[in-house]
Design brief:
CATH topology of one domain: Tetracycline Repressor, domain 2
Strand content: under 5%
Number of helices: 10
Number of strands: 0
Order of helices and strands: HHHHHHHHHH
Shape: elongated
CATH superfamily of one domain: Tetracycline Repressor, domain 2
Largest sheet: none
CATH architecture of one domain: Orthogonal Bundle
């Protein structure tokens, strides 16, 4: 029923609404591109509007300030992380060994980081904007619980608290090294990912 309502609402969108959604996406895409080019400190709404070819007033029709744009950008990135974990959770984890899990899941999660332009400045922004930091903290707890449940399904015979502890370690390790790997390319990136897989497997295999 909820899906039916969602589809019905989608069908009833007017051309004006479609244009509004497209403009919002354009703003987020441009902001990510500028973050990559100029960094967080030099990013301004004036610069974003100029890049888009619109007035600052038009930009404020969609977002009241730079922080609001960054919040939406960060929220989108965190939603993509959740979507990746949802896909992984749908796998037959009970029949999967730890090495296969690491080999398949790490590249899927890394893809979310690769798809987000301006990754390093965005991470910096998430620490600079209090609302974004709070959102990131709340999201981390959700991901840790997801990882802990995956570990249970993979057969890790530890207490729930221990699985959550390892989930937090895994999340922090993946985040720190994924941010680094997306700045690399070619053989160096492949070697870094292989090293990260080895670290992750060691963490899961420890008694």
């Amino acid at each position: 029923m909820a899906l039916h309502r969602k589809l019905k609402l989608t069908e009833q969108r007017t051309p004006r609404q479609e244009r509004s959604l497209q403009r919002r996406d354009d703003i987020l895409h441009t902001t990510a591109m500028l973050l990559e080019r100029v960094g967080f400190d030099d990013l301004t709404t004036i610069l974003i509007a100029r890049e888009l070819g619109i007035s600052v007033g038009s930009l404020y029709h969609y977002f009241p300030n730079k922080q609001a744009i960054l919040y939406a950008l960060g929220e989108h990135w965190l939603e993509e992380q959740t979507r990746a974990l949802d896909e992984i959770a749908a796998w037959d984890l009970e029949a999967m060994d730890l090495e296969t899990f690491v080999d398949k899941s790490f590249p899927r999660m890394l893809a979310v980081y690769r798809e987000q332009r301006g990754m390093l400045p965005l991470v910096q922004a998430m620490w600079a904007v209090p609302e974004l930091r709070d959102l990131d903290d709340e999201h981390d707890e959700l991901l840790i619980n997801r990882l802990a449940d995956m570990f249970r399904r993979l057969g890790l015979r530890h207490s729930k608290a221990e699985r959550e502890r390892r989930g937090r370690l895994m999340l922090e390790m993946l985040h720190a090294l994924f941010v680094s790997i997306v700045e690399q390319s070619g053989a160096r990136a492949a070697r870094s990912l292989a090293d990260l897989k080895a670290l992750g497997l060691t963490l899961l295999q420890r008694d």
